[in-house]
């Protein structure tokens, strides 16, 4: 990652939830940001949720810089996954942190040989570009998906990466 912050990725714990909800409030103020209860619910459901933390903060306290969550559905051999959320504090955007978080949740999907779905605002060009660089393709348009703003979303999908494709680098 670029920048001066030595971030590390680790599993999201309940102690991280308040900070993640605060970041949501900043990033998605016009579109029903997730409250802490939503993060707690996702953790209860057993999804693959990660945080990027800066452990170099004085006193050893963790400072949450970003987060990502992958929901896992289905049964062994027939999994499907969905990126439910990803966010990086505005002052850390453009440092590679979002890419690192995305790659980490995609690695989990690859472990499961599962396809990955997500929704993204149609006006979020940087996120769309990031997703396309990681193999996502647009499937369709959801009119008025984000509320209360009424912003549209693209539904995007990345096909499953099987063990054979992982080994030969495709």
UniProtKB/TrEMBL annotation:
Coiled coil: none annotated. InterPro entries: AcTrfase_RimI/Ard1, Acyl_CoA_acyltransferase, GNAT_dom, YpeA/RimI_acetyltransf. Belongs to the acetyltransferase family. RimI subfamily. PROSITE patterns: GNAT. Keywords: Acyltransferase, Cytoplasm, Ribonucleoprotein, Ribosomal protein, Transferase. The keyword Mitochondrion does not apply. This is Ribosomal protein S18-alanine N-acetyltransferase. The keyword Transferase applies. It comes from the Bacteria. It comes from Prauserella alba. SUPFAM superfamilies: Acyl-CoA N-acyltransferases (Nat). One of its GO terms (cellular component) is ribosome. Residues 7-161 form the N-acetyltransferase domain.
